Amino acid sequence: MAGHADDFELLGRFARARDEPAFAEVVRRHLNLVYSSAVRRVGDRHLAEDVTQAVFVILAKKAKSVRSSRAPLGAWLLTTVRYAAANALKIEARRRKHEERAAAAASAAAAAGASSGGACSANPSDVIVWEEVASQLDDAVLKLPAVDRRAILMRYFEDRPISEIAQALRVTEGAAKMRLSRSVEKLRKRLERSGAGAAAALPAGAAGFDTMLATHAVRAAPAGLMQHAIAASLGGAAAGAAGAAAGTLSGIAIAKGAIAMMSWKSKIAAAVVAAAMLGTGTVLTMSFAGAQAPKAQDDPAAAKAEAPAASDEADAENNDDKASLATAPPVVVKTVPQSGMTGVDPKTAEIRVTYSKSMKNGSWSWSTWGEENFPKLNGKPRYEADKRTCVLPVKLEPNKFYAIWLNSEKFGNFKDAGGRPAVPYLLVFKTK
């Protein structure tokens, strides 16, 4: 909020000095967002409360790393809800299976009831449509382009005024309204393509869907949930034991499993880029998040050649929801060695990857899937004259398995000339 510490400043204070009031303020700001997403994910209000607690437990544990992220906190929270909800449903399914063996079928069915529904509209048809598309909403929001996602989150998930959205996007209020309208329409079209049977009944145009989002996207969390979430986040195991004693799934237990799931994903996506130091045979390994490919402006002619014309940008903006070669992300069409090959000659001096489109000069994400499976480098990556083939000079070893991410879930510096990240691709092969 204007004039107040932002979320990451508050998390920084908590991470540095365990400023519990600062963390409590973050919980207060985002409680309804997290709870609403949890209800959509698990379909049960009581279970959603446990998931909500778990998300803030995870936030407390990861406050330091989260505050160093460039992604909006709302997007991080929605992603974390996905993991926590998946683990909660897994635990709940296991618990119900045991209950069903010991209890009557009617009792088990009653325990599985309490559907979320959650609609606040007086229009019954809106309620039916919303209930069917709600389960798709959060994933659809997370898949939006960054600017659209930020606008949607701020307006409909965080209830920010247009003035704050304009300030965050660094545009005028009029431009912010136009951006928000386009973002809502993109979201509506994405939901239509998601396969939900009732998606086609969403109000046509951004204006109608805007009203539905404002009405349904975030609901008030139950009284007392904020205190429970803060206590679980700051109280650790004691809070988890109290929750278990109360007969509910412990947010601590859900958080533990969700963190394990997130860590597994991070191990695959966490990348380390090796870049050869100029003038030496020494290999320098650095964190991918801090590694940048050479900037296009280092070569003014190349920068000018790859920069799209203003009219092209306008066309892309107006047509980025239409499927075409121009709007599709680049994909890997060829690799040398070919992915999946065995018996690759260890004397191979270069790994080559060719994309379906012209790529942005100086942008790449050669990253690891386990450092032991990443090849030693013998020079810097470069693009060939075709602007589609990126070459990585390497020094391979005999009888070794190699695995290399070309982009990943977390990093996406392989981009086409228009800035669209390439679809992640895992290149695997073994030398003879």
Shape: globular
The largest pleated sheet is described as: 5 strands, antiparallel
**What's the number of domains?**
2
Total helix count? 16
Structural class: alpha+beta
User: What is the first-to-last residue Cα distance?
Assistant: 60 Å
Question: pLDDT under 50 segments (min length 5)?
Answer: 104-122, 236-249, 267-321
Binned strand content: 5-15%
Q: What tags apply to this protein structure?
A:
432 residues; 2 domains; 51% helix; three-stranded antiparallel beta sheet; alpha+beta; globular
Compose a concise summary of this entry.
Helices cover 51% and strands 11% of the residues.
Write a structural description.
It is a single chain. The chain has 432 residues and is an alpha+beta fold. The protein has 2 domains: 260 residues, no CATH class; 159 residues, Immunoglobulin-like, CATH 2.60.40.1220. The chain is built from 16 helices and 10 strands. β1 and β2 form a beta hairpin. α8 crosses α10, α9 packs across α10 and α10 packs across α11. The N and C termini lie far apart (60 Å).
